[in-house]
Amino acid sequence: MIVVPGPASPSLGKIIAKKLNAQVISVNLKQFPDGEYCLRFQGKLDGEEVVVVQSTGPPQDTNVLQLLLMLDAAKEMGATKVTAVVPYLAFARQDKRFLSGEVISAETLVKLIQACGSDRFITVNIHSENTLKCFRIPTENLSAITSLAEYFKNRGLNGAFSLSPDKGAIKWAEEADKVLGGGCGWLKKERDRYTGEIQVEEKSLNVKDRDVIVFDDIISTGGTIARAVKMLKTQGARRVYAACVHPLLIGEATQKILQNGAEEIVGTDSIPTSVRTVSLAPLIAEALAR
Ligand code: R5P
């Protein structure tokens, strides 16, 4: 097996390869003055099983296109099997037509990944499992929530309350609760489909003097988690932590969350940011070895 760490996931790709004892073939990125670029594999792929690791966080268009270019070229260069490892799948939140006339970005992305010759697709905590139904190739949606919860348990937060900031994300709070054992709950969030504004419904939670960890799949602008943290602190929670799988952390997201009273933001290396405390490498390597 050969692992190709794409330009968006150089470090994660290398750690996965190390865990698998697999050969790494890196990709050289040559940028042209007009913004276009050319990718070049630094080794031969013919006759090999190839794993391309490329997350598709910001800049999404660039990272998605690079992913497609690598998948297509790996197949065309004679790889016997190509696995696309895309820890964060861009556009996954646009998995249906919320307003008439809208595109369904997640479906288009799936079609492209498939058309470029992928034989297998692995992702982590995809926003909606429905997206995977569009694939005709084998897919796996891994969950990093247990790893995040274990990190907190090892930090002495066993018994903390697990909260999801949105009812749709309760499955993640429930998964975390299996490790932390302090009970779980959810908040109700509504997003205005025209303005993008979110409202989190006021809800009384039994969190006075308790440690609480808010689990979500994505932190983008930080608005969702910041509102949850604020509500928890107002209700007397002791320490509140923000945990997420895909820390996009756009603009002032980090400050927003911390200023509202969170102790810390803990994320994974799905996106290479400063909060990449928990690595996805063991989870992904294990799936690849199966
Ligand atoms: C959406 O439903 C996701 O699960 C996250 O809650 C959302 O993407 C977070 O966005 P933001 O950080 O901008 O509030």
What does this structure look like?
The protein is an alpha/beta fold and 290 residues long. The protein has 2 domains: 2-143 and 280-289, Rossmann fold; 145-269, Rossmann fold. 31% of the residues lie in helices and 26% in strands. It has helices spanning 10-20, 60-76, 105-115, 145-157, 170-180, 223-234, 253-259, 281-289, and strands at 2-5, 23-24, 27-31, 37-41, 49-53, 81-86, 120-124, 139-142, 161-164, 184-186, 189-191, 198-200, 212-219, 240-247, 262-268, 276-278. Helix 6 (223-234) packs parallel to helix 7 (253-259). The longest helix is centred in the N-terminal third of the chain and has 17 residues, at 60-76. The model has no long low-confidence stretch (mean pLDDT 96). The structure holds ribose-5-phosphate. Ribose-5-phosphate binds next to strand 13 and helix 6.
